[in-house]
Specification:
By secondary structure, the chain is α+β, with helices and mostly antiparallel strands. It is built from twelve helices and 37 strands. Helix 6 crosses helix 7 (about 500-515) and helix 8 runs antiparallel to helix 9.
Length: about 650
């Protein structure tokens, strides 16, 4: 037997090199990924793109009132976790160690840390306190819970929860040091409710009801009696973007009352009178915070996608602009008890990092410098603003990223990448893996802000509302294509479309309408049929989506929703698709992808389908996101670059 085995081994040896040549090594597929019709990923592709997979980000979350350290969210493993940073440029110390990402912040004064966590991207968040690496549950473990506000004295945490019936977001308060103190303070109907802030003394609070992007109503809630009193005239379509009390009891808000844009000002809770206090008349105030001593208010302006940080003296009305921050996108604004301003900054050349600003000198400090896989982020290209007039004369714009013409001369292939929302906006933030397309493959990428995008005023954001205006945003893509196809640096014969969520619907719709211009489409967590989407999206958000898209229960609207749905026109789809789906997606359920893939294949057309069974509305786990990108690279190689 031994001799026979040795003989067989010897006979097999000459054939080994040939077998090795035939079977090129492939990357291991993550256990939670289902690759239906998607070819294996070659290891050669993994190695070529590896540096671009290894970038990190560091988002500012909060200030620790005890240690004066900064709380950030960053990823060293498969998902982002919470870390603290003691000072600018100092080491990140990990304090959470979960299989899922967390977010949260500190209670004032004693620094009790409250976090939220879901499972597999379900968005059914539970609230916990985090101490010594251990979580203590505050909620029921089953419902969907969202952190709302904390009282200035650090005693109470407010949150919304669907625990009563799984649909309505009732309001609760709890002392997070004692979960038994949980009590409902307002029973509501609908999913758009939140407690915006506690009034000084904790006897009352401001409650916000989000109805639509054009309308959000404020109320005064007596926390002792439960009486809810409307603030202002709720018959008016006024949107409030934030509400916060100053130490002296003045209520500061952002509001579009009397303007096309969100302005910073004060609101009288008794009369409902809004008084603008900032000098801006154009562009939205996206967020603000009030210094604990009331000496200044820090706020962020969105100027055509570029963020500006300004400080307002509420006594004099004078403003100062912070000029030392990188030019890009700002978020997560929070003022420390001692006055330092914390902020997250992201741009083409800053991979999302935490900064602070001294409110007296306006000096800027960079607390984190996230790794970019050994690559120099200064190499990344800055975008150019593209502006066109659409089919009806409406101005629309977007950001075009071009590959280095010295490295990639001539006409370049193009991917049109459409944002979700639809009440969203593409801004020139860090592009992560997309930099591989630009820097190594020479593919240009264009990010349009079609009508219905935020950031350009409430008139513009309403231009796609309801089923009868919905396709006008798809027509905007045609106007952009007219401009881009005439660009000397773009290869009009090699163009593709990509998009996620509502952008996924736009991806399907554009692939159908402009199939003669696009070669392929990569549609992610996408709506394929508005009627089935509205019927199957989670109940807590269904009415909110009906306001934007239309009401499928109304026969006239249902007929129009069916008419404009991509699934209805699948017979007109002639280009290949890559469809990406989260198995736990509470917003756009997997059934939306399943029915589209089945319909495309039934017509004999190509549809690759990638499913993350432990993901929700987009892939959050690094191993899945990497595999998704590698699959996209293969898809573009096969259907765009040839």
């Amino acid at each position: 037997m031994r001799k026979t085995l040795l003989g067989l081994t010897a006979l097999a040896l000459p054939f080994a090199p040939a077998l090795a040549q035939q079977a090129a090594p492939v990357a291991p597929k993550p256990a939670a990924i289902v690759a239906d019709g998607v070819p294996p990923v070659p290891m050669q592709l993994v190695e070529a793109s590896r540096p671009y997979m290894e970038f990190r980000t560091a988002s500012f979350m909060d200030w620790d009132p005890v240690s004066k350290s900064m709380l950030i969210s960053t990823r060293f493993g498969n998902v982002a976790q919470l870390h603290t940073v003691a000072g600018p440029g100092m080491a990140r110390r990990q304090i959470s160690f979960e299989a899922e990402p967390l977010g949260g912040g500190y209670m004032p004064n004693d620094g009790t840390l409250v976090v939220r966590k879901d499972t597999g991207g379900s968005e059914f968040w539970q609230l916990y306190t985090l101490k010594d690496g251990r979580l203590t549950l505050l909620t029921d473990g089953k419902s969907r819970n969202s952190i709302n506000a904390v009282s200035a004295d650090g005693k109470w945490l407010a949150y919304s929860s669907t625990r009563r019936n799984g649909t309505d977001s009732d309001l609760y308060v709890v002392d997070p040091r004692n979960p038994a103190t949980t009590k409902m303070v307002l029973q509501v109907s609908g999913g758009g409710w939140a407690l915006a802030d506690f009034a000084p003394g904790n006897k009352a609070a401001i409650v916000a009801q989000y109805v639509s992007v054009q309308k959000s109503d404020l109320h005064w809630l007596d926390l002792e009696t439960g009486k809810l009193t409307p603030i202002g005239d709720h018959k008016k379509a006024i949107a409030h973007g934030g509400a916060k009390f100053a130490r002296d009891g003045t209520l500061w808000v952002t509001s579009d009352e009397g303007s096309d844009f969100q302005r910073l000002g004060t609101l009288d809770p008794k009369t409902g009178k809004f008084t603008p206090r900032g000098p801006e008349t154009k562009w939205d105030v996206e967020g603000f915070d009030i210094a604990p001593d009331g000496s200044f208010i820090a706020y962020v302006i969105n100027e055509a996608g570029i963020s500006k940080l300004r400080l307002l003296d509420p006594k004099t009305g004078q403003t100062r602009e912070v000029t030392g921050l990188p030019r890009g996108v700002l978020g997560s604004l929070r003022i420390a008890p001692w006055g330092e301003i914390g902020i997250t900054v992201s741009s083409a050349r800053v991979p999302t990092d935490a900064f602070s600003v001294d409110p007296k000198t306006l000096a800027v400090k960079r607390w984190t410098e996230s790794e970019t896989g050994g690559l120099d982020p200064a190499r990344n290209v800055e975008p150019e603003l593209i502006e066109v007039k659409s089919f009806d004369g409406e101005p629309v714009s977007g950001f075009l990223y071009r590959p280095d013409p010295a490295k990639f001369p001539g006409k370049r292939p193009l991917i049109v990448d459409i944002h979700g929302g639809p009440e969203g906006q593409t801004t020139p933030s860090f592009r992560g893996r997309t930099n591989y397309l630009l820097n190594e493959q020479g593919i240009a990428v264009f990010y349009p802000n079609v009508r219905g995008s935020t950031g350009y005023g409430k008139r513009f954001v309403s231009l796609d509302n309801g089923p009868f205006l919905r396709e006008n945003s798809v027509k905007d893509i045609g106007a952009f294509l007219d401009r881009l196809q005439g660009d000397a640096g773009i290869d009009a014969a090699r163009m593709a479309v990509r998009g996620g969520s509502y952008g996924g619907y736009m991806c399907y719709a554009s692939a159908i309408r402009y199939g003669d211009r696009f070669k392929a489409g990569n549609c992610i967590v996408a709506i394929s049929n508005f009627v089935t989407f509205l019927e199957n999206t989670q109940s807590y958000r269904r009415d909110l989506r009906r306001v934007e898209y239309g009401d499928e229960r109304d026969p006239k609207q249902r007929a129009k929703l069916t008419e404009i749905s991509p699934l209805t026109h699948v017979d007109k789809l002639a280009i290949p698709l890559l469809v990406v789906t989260g198995g736990n997606d509470p917003r756009v359920p997997q059934s939306e992808a399943d029915q589209m893939v089945a319909a495309v294949r039934a017509k004999g057309r190509t549809a690759w389908h990638l499913v993350g069974t432990n993901e929700g509305h987009g892939f959050a786990k690094k191993e899945n996101a990497d595999y998704q990108f590698w699959s996209e690279l293969q898809f573009w190689k096969e259907h765009l670059l040839k």
